[in-house]
Each structure stands twice: as C-alpha cells, then as structure tokens.
C-alpha cells in the first residue's frame, strides 16, 4: 500500500479525531468532513483515499466512541500508524475495519506529507528516502476481520 502520511503528535484523543458536536451523525461521509478539524481544518480536503495517519504515542485516547474510527475510514485513511494506541480505540478501529499499526520510532522517521509504503505481509513501513521500520505484525484473524471491512462483515461471512 502506498499513500501520503499525515503526521500528528502524541495523545490525539477521540475529541480531536471527531469533535463531540458531530456525534449526532453516524455515517462515514458526514463524519469524514469533520475528521481532525481541530488540528487541521483542511484535513478532510487534503486526505485522499489510501493515505495514512502517522502519530506518536497514545493515539485514540479519551472516550470510547466508534465515531472516531468511522470518521477516519470515511476520510479514506488506509491505516493509522503510531507509536502506541489507546486500547478501546484499537478495538473500535478493528471493529469498523481501520488497521492500526504499532511502530515504535515511526514519528521520527516519517515527515508530514511524505509518501510511504506499507507492506502488511512483511510488517514494514518504508519512507520516500528508502528508510524503513518494522511494525507489530497483526495476527491472521485480525487481518481477516480488516480484510472483510470490520467485525460485522466478518461475522456475516462466517456463517
């Protein structure tokens, strides 16, 4: 997978990902229009299908709303790559089909707007200048959930 990296810092909470005033909406399209707007008001316009978010530690902390990963998915984010994630956000993102890749050191390697390549099979991320870093490989069952588009679709297809 190739795409641009949109870089954010540490402790990006779910209110930053999608502000609370938009929790009256549940559809990807509406939520995506307000994704990350507190830090980057133009994010929804700049982010293209297949791009990545790169962040520091504790991405997705705060309240346990599923709206946050739904907004990211709607914005076209292919995966979030961070030093670490909040546990509940990790589960919610998997449930809606957004891969979260834990890669210690990623925030020092990647620059904002840089094109990166993510190799899910070999668990590596390569920067545009050829530097690479490994991420914690996802277990096969989790890859299958993500491949199906989330937990609901995965369970529907298990019958």
Write the SSE topology:
Blueprint (H helix, E strand, L loop, with lengths): L1 E6 L6 H4 L10 H5 L10 H4 L5 E4 L11 H9 L3 E4 L4 H10 L3 E3 L3 H4 L5 E5 L4 E3 L5 E3 L5 H8 L3 H7 L2
How does this structure look, described?
The protein has 159 residues and is α/β, with parallel strands linked by helices. The protein has a single domain, classed as Aconitase, domain 4 (Alpha-Beta Barrel). The chain has 8 helices and 7 strands; from the N terminus they run E-H-H-H-E-H-E-H-E-H-E-E-E-H-H. The chain has helices at 14-17, 28-32, 43-46, 67-75, 87-96, 106-109, 140-147, 151-157; strands at residues 2-7, 52-55, 79-82, 100-102, 115-119, 124-126, 132-134. Strands 4-3-2-1-5-6-7 form a 7-stranded mixed sheet. It starts with a strand and ends with a helix. The model has no long low-confidence stretch (mean pLDDT 94).
Strand content: 15-25%
Separate helix tally: 8
Remind me, CATH topology? Aconitase, domain 4
Q: How many strands, which pairing sense, and closed or not: the largest β-sheet?
A: 7 strands, mixed
Q: Which percent range fits the helix content?
A: 25-40%
Q: Which architecture per CATH?
A: Alpha-Beta Barrel
Q: Name the structural class.
A: alpha/beta
Our Rg estimate from Cα atoms comes to 15 Å
| Count of individual beta strands | 7
CATH class: Alpha Beta
Assigned CATH superfamily: Aconitase, domain 4
Order of helices and strands: EHHHEHEHEHEEEHH
Number of domains: 1
Distance between the termini: 30 Å
Mean pLDDT across the residues is 94
